[in-house]
Amino acid sequence: MPTQKLINDGNAAVDEMLAGILAAHPDHLFRPADAPRAIVARHGPRPGKVALVIGGGSGHEPTFLGFVGKGLADAAAIGNVFASPPPQPAVDAALAAQGGAGVLFMYGNYAGDVMNFDMASELLEMEGVEARTVLTTDDIASHTDRAKRRGVAGNVFIFKAAGAAADLMLPLDEVERIARHANARTCTMGVALSSCSLPQTRRPSFDLPVGEMEIGMGIHGEPGVRRGPLRPADEVVDEIMDALLAEMGAARGDRVAVLVNSLGATPLMELYILNARVAQRLDQAGLGVHRTLVGPYCTSLDMAGASITLMHLDDELTRLIDHPCDCAMFRHG
Amino acid sequence: MPTQKLINDGNAAVDEMLAGILAAHPDHLFRPADAPRAIVARHGPRPGKVALVIGGGSGHEPTFLGFVGKGLADAAAIGNVFASPPPQPAVDAALAAQGGAGVLFMYGNYAGDVMNFDMASELLEMEGVEARTVLTTDDIASHTDRAKRRGVAGNVFIFKAAGAAADLMLPLDEVERIARHANARTCTMGVALSSCSLPQTRRPSFDLPVGEMEIGMGIHGEPGVRRGPLRPADEVVDEIMDALLAEMGAARGDRVAVLVNSLGATPLMELYILNARVAQRLDQAGLGVHRTLVGPYCTSLDMAGASITLMHLDDELTRLIDHPCDCAMFRHG
Amino acid sequence: MEFTTDDLKALFHRLAARMAAERDALCALDGLVGDGDHGIAMEQGMVAADAAVAGADGSLQDLFNAGAKGFLNAVGASSGPLYATAFLRAGKVAGPRPAMPRDDLRQIIAAMRDGVAQRGKAAPGMKTMLDAWHPAAEAALGGAAPDAITAAARDGAEATRTMVAAIGRSERLGARSLGHLDPGAVSAAMVIEDICRALRGQG
Amino acid sequence: MEFTTDDLKALFHRLAARMAAERDALCALDGLVGDGDHGIAMEQGMVAADAAVAGADGSLQDLFNAGAKGFLNAVGASSGPLYATAFLRAGKVAGPRPAMPRDDLRQIIAAMRDGVAQRGKAAPGMKTMLDAWHPAAEAALGGAAPDAITAAARDGAEATRTMVAAIGRSERLGARSLGHLDPGAVSAAMVIEDICRALRGQG
Ligand SMILES: Nc1ncnc2c1ncn2[C@@H]1O[C@H](COP(=O)(O)OP(=O)(O)O)[C@@H](O)[C@H]1O
Ligand SMILES: Nc1ncnc2c1ncn2[C@@H]1O[C@H](COP(=O)(O)OP(=O)(O)O)[C@@H](O)[C@H]1O
Ligand SMILES: [Mg+2]
Ligand SMILES: [Mg+2]
Ligand SMILES: [Mg+2]
Ligand SMILES: [Mg+2]
């Protein structure tokens, strides 16, 4: 029996979703003519401004296109479900958003995305547009080597910092430096409680029996670091926070931004229960909380589970995180 | 095997959730001393202003407490999961929020809520505080008689209109009139794709086999009007929109506000697919869309499914819907 | 053998244990016609009432009042105001006495029925807990034996199967409520059964 | 009997049908080590390539180029750039000819291997589709019979079971990737099998 979804033809899901998004948010977003998979901010792109172009597979909403708007990303390239967009949408998005000061591509570190966006960069170069790339690599469960890690929910903070830098009209070198800096100080780890299922197959992508959880699972259902019996929320948070705090190496008195993220099917009540423990742990560690986001920010279709992200703030990142942004699915300030 | 949830003791879920909410949103919300189940807006309540106090059972987050903030509700009374709060939290919330111009209680029309809030009103009267009540009754699937209908996701628009009226310092009579008017022009209908499960039982509250859907199901899992095979999204939307449009009786050229709401486990991709069809249907009906909200606004724990709400706007409601508000989980303007 | 405050404390203690034991079954019944939480409300309510009563001093009325407040503040929901009002009415009947004749438990049952009816504004036949409380109260006032009162409550609860809900959460079901028991009536019959044990002098 | 543009169109058509038939099996393999969508990518890619090639005119190279573009734009993902580059390289070998000796399909297989290797920056043994393409290309260049080339690809795919992924989505699995097939290698062996049918003169 196919999994329970409110969709029509699974192959049309992404395009129908985009139609629904454009219908809901005409004041924020538009789609350039002849670029069906590029979504551009109505306000934001402007002459002399570095264009921040993000993108990746669909199924992570509000990541990526929900973060397109003034003060954050200028445009997004939209892929099929869990599939990097091909080069063309990235080129379309970049050309629609660029203001003569160069383009910064930012996306999660996945082999497919790297190949496609690299091809896009080559194509842009042929058009005389300079494009740089900063990969997000915040998923500490995915590799010991930071450079090989996946990019997951921390995207929202990392994109936000880079988007604020671009909105402040900083030059490409600076926006790139800030993006790398933001990424280096952002750590995420998640836990899955159920499989997602793709709209095209409507079957669980993997098998996670009831009663079990998978710590460190990726946002496409990539296997994580450990599978075991589902534990009470506080113990799950403790396992994740131990790892995040060890990785982050913050000093007492430092400040962080927190994101408690739903992987799709986990509702707010559970996220806030997690956050109660996150706040306790940060307090015990002597860390101050500058801002907390709670909700579905980077999902994995209908997967049940959650992730916790910490961004280790400094003065520069605090200023950028506080900078206003106005996106269809995310607003601040 | 208990259902998959990130919680600790099920009986502690509501209080732990509140702790997580207060930790996440200290700038927006506080809890008065000795009132563990009352949540009050930091900004908003002020002398001479009608206090809008909302409330109901937990498990619908961000309804109710996510809508507490400047420009919307001044306070919320928090019940156990799917259980009206007792009178005391409502009294606590009202006393903390009231500014000498009276209190308007607004909540969904459920027998338990009516009994408890009525008791709260009697207690407030003894304290010399005038309290009136407007019940929300937007769920058109729940009864043919409007006055007997349940209040569901349309709450967000109805509360918003009343909250804007109160924020504009209108007197109690006017705020009450506007609340009734907003309720009368708001219609919702939903569809469930899976059962929710209570944190205390961690068992499906009812049986909805894979492959089936229930049209008109309530946000506590109350049975709906019709159960049948799960249909493609467009057909589900058409069934709901036919009912909403017939009920609303709008004329071509009229304008509406739209809410496509997740019941908890249904992710944004599916909601936007629904909205694509909603927008088509409104266009065919000659109705203009003034604003569209898409996301989890009124949930039913971990239930899969969605609801569609239309508010039939007039000039007054349009102004009130456009009025800014700044809540922990909902911002506008 | 009179019914003392100690007996009343024991009765609340038994009700708490009973509702804890029946919690999941009552939730399952409520899942069919309501929101699936009736067993939780009854357990939390009676456990809180038990704790409040156990910690209270004073007359029978004082204890009933403490139980009412404990139940209400722990629960809310529909059951909270209904049982709180029922206990307050029972307290009025019991009055400021340290003990009362066991036979006064008949008036207690009737007073609880009155409290439920007044608070809920329901009438018998609407498929609510009143459909257990009402026949039990009539039987109690008519001098029926404790077992017959219990049976009247149970039959009343059983009869809700044939009723279409006309009030409360399941009202909107219309004919779909037919064939299902009302969970509040089922739990009421259990409460009444335990009161009747006390009336019999067994607790 | 030469390999003509019609033969190439037929080959793409067969690949599209094959991937559609294998879609769910490939997704299931990808679910174990990746994100569960490899069958979708291969089906969408080959169906789009088939449509593009069917609608294109010109030389073998023109058709390969059309297929590359069709595949890439329909898919993205990892498979998109890898197969697009493979087809572009194949087109270069085929050149602006309307037909070529069937034996040139050996160079086509090798060129596709080169394209995958160049785009993916992977080496054999990293548990990727290259582990099917590489032994097949070596066998093809070494003059092996079509069946032996097919077998080399299949054995290469099978051998990914014993490899620990060193690149791509499953790299982060570490030892947990052991025992599982690489889905891209399995689909590559199918593609190679169909090319070898053409080499054999059967399609
Ligand atoms: N107005 C009423 N009068 C009498 N009993 C009522 C009324 N409304 C509801 N009930 C009873 O309450 C029961 C449900 O209680 P409970 O599940 O605890 O509350 P809720 O409906 O708020 O979830 C019903 O089964 C019914 O017996
Ligand atoms: N760098 C690479 N070089 C060669 N093949 C690769 C590389 N990265 C991934 N692959 C192949 O791609 C396959 C996955 O393809 P697919 O599922 O379509 O893309 P995605 O990983 O983006 O979901 C893997 O099984 C592997 O064979
Ligand atoms: Mg993929
Ligand atoms: Mg309830
Ligand atoms: Mg109930
Ligand atoms: Mg894949």
TrEMBL record, chains A, B:
<protein>
    <submittedName>
        <fullName>Dihydroxyacetone kinase</fullName>
    </submittedName>
</protein>
<feature type="domain" description="DhaK">
    <location>
        <begin position="9"/>
        <end position="330"/>
    </location>
</feature>
<keyword id="KW-0808">Transferase</keyword>
<keyword id="KW-0418">Kinase</keyword>
<dbReference type="InterPro" id="IPR050861">
    <property type="entry name" value="Dihydroxyacetone_Kinase"/>
</dbReference>
<dbReference type="Pfam" id="PF02733">
    <property type="entry name" value="Dak1"/>
</dbReference>
<dbReference type="InterPro" id="IPR004006">
    <property type="entry name" value="DhaK_dom"/>
</dbReference>
<dbReference type="GO" id="GO:0016301">
    <property type="term" value="F:kinase activity"/>
</dbReference>
Automatic annotation (TrEMBL), chains C, D:
<dbReference type="InterPro" id="IPR012737">
    <property type="entry name" value="DhaK_L_YcgS"/>
</dbReference>
<protein>
    <submittedName>
        <fullName>Dihydroxyacetone kinase subunit L</fullName>
    </submittedName>
</protein>
<keyword id="KW-0418">Kinase</keyword>
<feature type="domain" description="DhaL">
    <location>
        <begin position="6"/>
        <end position="197"/>
    </location>
</feature>
<dbReference type="InterPro" id="IPR050861">
    <property type="entry name" value="Dihydroxyacetone_Kinase"/>
</dbReference>
<keyword id="KW-0808">Transferase</keyword>
<dbReference type="InterPro" id="IPR004007">
    <property type="entry name" value="DhaL_dom"/>
</dbReference>
<dbReference type="InterPro" id="IPR036117">
    <property type="entry name" value="DhaL_dom_sf"/>
</dbReference>
<dbReference type="GO" id="GO:0016301">
    <property type="term" value="F:kinase activity"/>
</dbReference>
<dbReference type="Pfam" id="PF02734">
    <property type="entry name" value="Dak2"/>
</dbReference>
